[in-house]
Design brief:
flat; disordered N terminus; Four Helix Bundle (Hemerythrin (Met), subunit A); 2 domains; 7 helices; single chain; mainly alpha
Length: about 160
């Protein structure tokens, strides 16, 4: 059995400097995402609703509706991931793999601040997803290859 060389990757240590750097990075990511939304045209339904009722009471709901309508599914997921990462920073759980509980490498977090898994767990999850997708495709193909009732119709 061949010995595995330990990773030279520096670990996330939760120093004040690291926490502040990641907090700023995540806030910048969120700001850029939301700035892209503010450049999008606002649907007429939203502007018409703002004239109804007390604007102050509706401001929070209005912004939520606007974000929901303007954000694509992918952007919604990214905004949610950013907010979750910021919450983890507050709780002291940022940089911890959700699968194994080990610390995620600092270099990985710098490249992918929204990473939820360390490299090995991410690879394992991706492999499982590929196998599941392949199994689903095979089941779909088998279902298309043989359709019950087609033999009776031909006879």
């Amino acid at each position: 059995m061949k010995a595995v060389k330990p990773s030279a990757e520096v670990l996330w240590t939760e120093s004040k400097e690291q926490i502040e750097w990641f907090r700023r990075t995540l806030l910048d990511m969120r700001e850029k995402l939301l700035a892209g939304i503010s450049e999008s045209p606002v649907p007429e339904a939203l502007t018409a609703q703002s004239d109804i009722g007390d604007i102050i009471d509706q401001a929070g709901d209005e912004r939520e509706r606007e974000l929901s309508l303007l954000l694509s599914g992918r952007d919604k997921e990214k905004l949610l991931a950013i907010n979750e990462a910021l919450e983890k920073l507050k709780e002291g759980t940022y940089g911890i793999c959700e699968e194994c509980g080990e610390r995620i490498g600092l270099q990985r977090l710098k490249v992918m601040p929204l990473a939820r898994y360390d490299v090995s767990c991410q690879a394992k999850l991706e492999k499982e997803m590929r196998l599941q997708r392949k199994a689903e495709e095979e089941l779909t193909y088998r279902g298309l290859a043989y359709s019950p009732g087609t033999e009776e119709e031909e006879a």
